[in-house]
Design brief:
The chain is mainly alpha-helical and about 210 residues long. It contains 7 helices and 2 strands. It starts with 13 loop residues before the first helix and ends with a helix.
Length: about 210
């Protein structure tokens, strides 16, 4: 009579268990990437909707300069996904906005929008990536607001004469009483709103990605 062979199942070692638990499910990575693009598309759409529905003058001396909070979703996306995605999102929004709700601006409007907002989100995004804290967010947003205010000085001097057909001298005369204060107020307001809402939005993103 043949002896029955005993079959034993070896328990996984601690190293094997840790490796198995640390290995993500096969569908986790594609799902994470897909959700990122979903959020980016939502932020882009929200930015265009905001500029369409929310815009009003903030300086009585320059009623043609209107505030809008369209940069807030772009800043949130920059903090959530990084400065590169923020710049790419800025490009998409600038083009979509430039051919829809702000079509009168044409190519020059798209270019100015991309360079101004792109400078802000790049500065803020790089700093926040290196200083990922509440203090870092404050420094990043302040740097972003300052960067946008400063970059708009040469942009207005160069692009406005081409776009509006006015002389550089006229644009230069509007810098101190209108252009610089407007861009400072607009960028600071958008950065302040971003600071107030980002943590709430980031928690939702963290739960779904």
């Amino acid at each position: 009579m043949k002896n029955k062979q005993k079959t034993t199942l070896a328990a996984p070692t601690a190293t094997q268990s840790a490796t198995q638990s640390a290995t993500p499910a096969p569908a986790a990575a594609p799902r994470k990437g897909a959700m990122k693009f979903v959020y980016l598309a939502m932020f882009a759409a929200l930015s265009v909707v905001l500029v369409y529905f929310v815009h009003f003058p903030i300086l009585p001396a320059a009623p043609f300069l209107e505030y809008d909070p369209a940069d807030v979703p772009i800043l949130i996306a920059t903090f959530a996904f990084g400065p590169l995605w923020g710049v790419l999102l800025t490009l998409v929004v600038a083009v979509v906005q430039g051919v829809t709700v702000s079509a009168s601006g044409g190519f020059w409007g798209i270019l100015m929008h991309f360079l101004a907002t792109g400078t802000m989100v790049l500065a803020a995004g790089i700093i926040y990536r290196k200083m990922h804290s509440r203090k870092g967010a404050v420094i990043a947003l302040c740097a972003g607001a300052l960067s946008m205010t400063l970059i708009m000085i040469p942009l207005n001097l160069i692009i406005d004469p081409l776009y509006m057909g006015v002389s550089t001298k006229i644009v230069a005369g509007l810098l101190l009483p209108a252009i610089i204060p407007f861009n400072a107020i607009k960028s600071v307001l958008n950065c302040l709103i971003t600071f107030l809402v980002y943590k709430h939005v980031s928690r939702l993103i963290d739960r779904t990605i």
